[in-house]
Write a structure and sequence with these properties.
Layout (H helix, E strand, L loop, with lengths): L4 H8 L3 H9 L7 E2 L5 E2 L2 H15 L4 H11 L6 H39 L1
Antiparallel strand pairs: 1-2
Keywords: DNA-binding
GO molecular function, one term: DNA-binding transcription factor activity
Protein name: DNA-binding transcriptional MerR regulator
């Protein structure tokens, strides 16, 4: 099913500017255009954009996001490298979560301390 840029942005919960930016920095390749030159997004495009957004929201740097997007273009040939990139990112997410849990424990200690003084 084809989607306009506005429909695509709405479905993904991003702005049209975000989609334009992703295209400008090379994260989106092969987006079809209609006869008047407007971008038309497919279900596959939405899926790819959703994954890229997930990776970005979870802290993947733009440079690595670009590399991942390039590897998406290679089909099965890049599957091993894509998997390696995702595994590395997954480990980084785990490390961030552990750090946040440590910080949360400290915040909760302060809450308990302030609560006990009230």
């Amino acid at each position: 099913m084809p989607y306009t840029p506005g429909e695509t942005a709405e479905r993904l919960g991003v702005s049209i500017d975000t989609i334009r930016y992703y295209e400008k920095i090379g994260l989106l390749h092969g987006i079809q255009r209609n006869s008047s030159g407007r971008r038309i997004f497919s279900d596959d495009d939405l899926s790819r954009l959703g994954l890229l957004r997930c990776l970005r929201d979870s802290g993947m740097p733009i440079s690595r996001l670009r590399r991942f997007a390039e590897l998406l273009q290679t089909g099965d040939e890049g599957a091993e490298q894509r998997t390696a990139l995702l595994r590395e990112h997954d480990q980084e997410i785990d490390a961030k979560i552990e750090q946040l849990r440590r910080e949360q424990r400290r915040v909760r200690e302060k809450i308990a301390w302030y609560t006990s003084r009230a």
